[in-house]
Specification:
Helix content is 45%, strand content 15%. The protein is an alpha+beta fold. The chain has a four-stranded antiparallel beta sheet. Helix 1 runs antiparallel to helix 2. The longest helix is centred in the N-terminal third of the chain and has 30 residues.
């Protein structure tokens, strides 16, 4: 029974660890400490292995829980109800929680407030588009975090961060903000601007 508890604990731990790189930006936003957003981005390359390990561990825990027990001839009382932590119900809860954690990158954007604002452009020649190369982004949650911080600035027309391309393409009104302010906003998330070029 103790080995079952260890399996369940290990499954839970690997599921949380696999999602840590994507959960941290949301937690940073909620806590108001943007700079810690990229703290666990180093975990991203290990995410597929952690997901596999979570599935294996929880699969083995379910196998042990569902496999028929061998009957032992004895006159002792064996109809003792298992503790909640050793029950199938608890394993179900842990499994659902693990699935929710592993799927977090796919629905993390719902936790970010809508930063769209009404933009009034007086002169189209004042609109500039700049591509910022960014290191450290690993998932959609990172993209949302960068977009959220950039959109706090006045004069941002559009912000499109991409973790896959490692960049953010930002349209802005040069009379209201500039590349330096945008770079500061991106760097405040914990991800770093490595290069920038006008399009």
């Amino acid at each position: 029974m103790k080995s079952d508890n260890k399996l369940i604990g290990a499954g839970l731990l690997t599921a949380i660890t696999a999602s840590l790189c994507c959960i941290t930006p949301v937690l940073a936003l909620i806590a108001g400490t943007s700079g810690i957003a990229s703290t666990f981005s180093w975990i991203e390359p290990f995410r597929p292995y952690l997901i596999g390990l979570t599935i294996l561990v929880l699969g083995f825990a379910w196998y042990k829980k569902l496999k028929p027990r061998k009957e032992i001839d004895c006159d002792c009382e064996t109809d003792e109800k298992p503790k909640f932590i050793q029950s199938k119900k608890f394993l179900r809860i842990v499994t659902v929680f693990a699935i929710v954690m592993l799927a977090f990158p796919y629905y993390s954007e719902i936790f970010y407030p809508n930063t769209e604002k009404q933009i009034i452009v007086v002169d189209k020649s004042d609109i500039k588009t700049t591509e910022f190369k960014i290191s450290g982004m690993t998932c959609a949650s990172c993209e949302e975090h960068v977009n959220h911080e950039v959109n706090k600035l006045n004069g941002i027309v559009n912000s499109r961060a991409s973790y896959e391309n490692g960049n953010a393409i930002i349209e802005f009104d040069k009379t209201k903000t500039n590349k330096t302010e945008i770079e500061k906003a991106i760097n405040s998330t914990g991800y770093k601007v490595t290069d920038k070029k006008e399009n």
